[in-house]
Specification:
Blueprint: E1 2-6, H1 10-21, E2 26-29, H2 32-40, E3 44-48, E4 51-55, E5 58-60, E6 72-76, H3 83-91, E7 99-102, H4 109-113, E8 119-126, E9 129-130, E10 136-139, E11 144-149, H5 156-167, E12 171-174, H6 178-189, H7 192-197, H8 206-225, H9 240-248, H10 264-270, H11 279-291, H12 297-311, H13 321-334
Parallel strand pairs: 1-2, 1-6, 2-5, 3-10, 6-7, 7-8, 11-12
Antiparallel strand pairs: 3-4, 8-11, 9-10
Helix pairs in contact: 8-9, 8-11, 8-12, 8-13, 11-12, 12-13
The chain binds NADP nicotinamide-adenine-dinucleotide phosphate.
NADP nicotinamide-adenine-dinucleotide phosphate (NAP) is lined by residues 7, 9-12, 29-31, 77-80, 82, 86, 89, 103-105, 125, 128-129, 131, 263-264, 267, 273, 277.
């Protein structure tokens, strides 16, 4: 199997880099400065807490005609707001029946991809990765991947792909209900806004814990009202209740990590990108909440503040946890 990683930044770089290290043929489709740096350095530099190394692979800013054949697997990894445009471009150069796996967060990408492609699979990537400089990616530690046929069911392709990803060092599960796994990841991801906008000096505070628990408790109510399942296919990932329990446990002081890797929202704010993806996480929760008249001030305020940080180019870590909690309490009283 050959791999084309389309929209290769942080996640795509780590997936592609690890696959290349385990002797797979990998082509990254990424932005021009990233592609140039990779080709000039004869590989993608990868940094993790375990050390630094280089993965030999090809990189280009666009896919050439004839590059994708029947034996190609496309790993689709742009941000959700780029999905439509990437699918349009990709569909002109890849056959509609190509095997494609979306490792994006959110629950709307696979539906958009399915408008042009017929062999679509969903993927959950449980690891924190970043790409802050051209030619380089960082990740904390090797993570876990869940893959499965979209929208659901058993299929031979994820079963064929899983051992290849395992050989590249990932822990892999195959799901017959991948959207339940994706909803679980979406709910867990609701914390990412607060992780990114709140000053890291407050990250061990009670107020910070209250913010993260608040956003998750709201999501639980909302999903229950719609009878939606946010669940791990094999119970290997913590349930939303488990995550809440973990958040409430007293924490040991953080050990200084050799490699500092922040989440994707933090990365977008830090790089002063013009868009953030968080509307694709809080949006579906806020929409269902409206339908059932469930107040969701934690989700609303999280999305508003992340959007403000992005639009005004404030960068990450600009709010204190207490200040954010106060805004949420005021929102509650206004109703
Ligand atoms: N980072 C994480 O830890 C993590 C973990 C799990 C899941 N995820 C999910 O994985 C997805 C990707 O996240 P990420 O953090 O890897 O984002 P990212 O670093 O921004 O990577 C996406 C890359 O695709 C590029 N791109 C967009 N359109 C393109 C096109 N037409 N041609 C070539 N390149 C294009 C983007 O360039 P521009 O920025 O210039 O547009 C960007 O470099 C998101 O859905 C995210 O939520 C992330």
């Amino acid at each position: 199997m050959r791999f084309v990683v389309y929209g290769a930044g942080a996640v795509g770089g780590v997936l592609g880099g690890r696959l290349a290290l385990s002797k797979n043929d990998v082509l990254l489709i990424c932005r021009e400065p990233h592609a140039r740096a990779i080709n000039e350095n004869n590989g993608l530099k990868m940094k993790s807490a375990r050390g630094e190394y280089s993965a030999t692979l090809r990189a280009a800013s666009d896919l050439a005609a004839g590059e994708v054949d029947d034996d190609t697997c496309i790993l689709f990894t742009p941000k959700s707001h780029d999905t439509k445009l990437c699918v349009e471009k990709l569909s002109k150069l890849a056959p509609a029946g190509v095997s494609l796996v979306s490792f994006q967060n959110g629950v709307s990408n696979e539906e958009i991809i399915s408008e042009k492609f017929t062999n679509v699979h969903g993927g959950v990537c449980r690891m924190t990765c970043s790409a802050l400089q051209p030619g380089q990616v960082s990740f904390r530690r090797m993570g876990r991947l869940v893959i499965g046929k979209y929208p659901k069911g058993s299929h031979s392709f994820p079963k064929k792909l899983a051992p290849i990803l395992e050989s590249a060092g990932f822990e892999v599960s195959v799901s017959n209900s991948i959207m339940c796994d994706k909803w679980l990841k979406l709910v867990v991801n609701l914390q990412s806004g607060f992780n990114a906008i709140v000053d890291s000096r407050d990250h061990d505070s009670v107020e910070f814990m209250d913010l993260k628990v608040g956003v998750l408790e709201e999501a639980k109510k909302v999903l229950k009202s719609e009878k939606m399942r946010a669940k791990s296919c094999d119970d290997r990932d913590l349930s939303v209740d488990d995550v809440i329990k973990e958040l409430k446990k007293p924490k040991a002081p953080r050990s200084p990590s050799a490699v500092r890797v922040n989440n994707s929202t933090w990365q977008n704010l830090y790089l002063k990108r013009k868009e953030v993806e968080n509307g694709y996480f809080h949006g579906p929760i806020i929409e269902i909440a409206k339908k059932h008249k469930i107040p969701v001030p934690f989700n609303e305020v999280a999305l508003e503040l992340v959007t403000e940080c992005c639009k005004s180019k404030l960068g990450p870590g600009v709010f204190r946890a207490g200040e954010v909690l106060e805004k949420i309490n005021l929102r509650g009283k206004d109703r």
